[in-house]
Each structure stands twice: as structure tokens, then as C-alpha cells.
Specification:
Layout (H helix, E strand, L loop, with lengths): L8 E6 L7 H12 L3 E4 L6 H11 L3 E6 L4 H13 L8 E6 L6 H7 L3 E4 L4 H14 L5
Parallel strand pairs: 1-2, 1-3, 3-4, 4-5
């Protein structure tokens, strides 16, 4: 991992109809306490809204929290939006929430840098975000 001069910028998002955001707010506080800048987009966002915001905010990591069970179609749509951009993005995507282990490989094949389940410890979350930020695509 390379040394960073500025804090890691993380955007946390809730896509689709999932209306539960207590966990993502706990994650936001955990990441802030670890020295990261955190932007939370709020509930019921579309992939288009979240990608646009992540690009505008020049984030290092986009964390998508899903508890609804709709993770595969939501991430497919998210990556369709990302693939449709005129320029590649310079951020990593991390999935969090409730997702069956058997879907983890599919999410990684789509491009997700890490999959963090609902029982992931705060220390593991912070480490995963730091790793994702360090390994994110470099766009010049």
C-alpha cells in the first residue's frame, strides 16, 4: 500500500428499494474515526445517481450497501453504468451488507474489489477500504 498525503475519500451508497441504513451509518462513522472522508448518498439512489456523484466527488472507493437481496441485478446495473462512461473511473467498488457467499465470486468477476458481510468487524472494514483505495485503478 502506498503512502497517501490526503485522507481516503469514500462514498457510501444505498441503491434500490432497500430502506435500512443503520448499518451503513455505523460504517460511515467507523471510517471517519479511521481518518477517512466519507460521503453518504442517502437511501433509494439509482446506479446512475451514485456513479455521477462518485465521479463528481472524486472518491477513491465507492461502497455499496445492500440488504434487500437484489445485489446481483443492482451490481450488474451499476457496472453497466460504469462501462458506459466516456472515461474510466479511478475508484474501487466494495460491496457490503447481506449477500450469500456463493454470490461473492460473481460480484468479484463483475469488478467488485471486496465483499464485506453484515458481521464484518470494524477493523476488517477499515483494512478492506484502505486496501481497495491503494489498489484502485489509476486514471491519468
Amino acid at each position: 500500500m502506498s503512502a497517501r498525503q490526503e485522507p481516503i475519500r469514500v462514498m457510501l451508497a444505498k441503491l434500490g428499494l432497500d430502506g435500512h441504513d443503520r448499518g451503513v451509518k455505523v460504517v460511515a462513522r467507523t471510517l471517519r474515526d479511521a481518518g477517512m472522508e466519507v460521503i453518504y448518498t442517502g437511501l433509494h439512489r439509482t446506479p446512475e445517481q451514485v456513479v455521477e456523484a462518485a465521479v463528481q466527488e472524486d472518491v477513491d472507493v465507492l461502497g455499496v450497501s445492500i440488504l434487500s437481496g437484489a445485489h446481483l441485478p443492482i451490481f450488474r446495473k451499476l457496472y453497466q453504468v460504469l462501462d458506459g462512461l466516456p472515461e474510466p473511473v479511478g475508484f474501487a467498488v466494495v460491496a457490503g451488507g447481506v449477500m450469500p457467499e456463493e454470490d461473492e465470486q460473481t460480484l468479484r468477476q463483475m469488478g467488485v474489489a471486496d465483499v464485506l458481510g453484515q458481521d464484518t468487524t470494524p477493523e476488517t472494514i477499515v483494512a478492506a477500504i484502505r486496501t481497495a483505495a491503494a489498489d484502485r485503478p489509476v486514471v491519468v
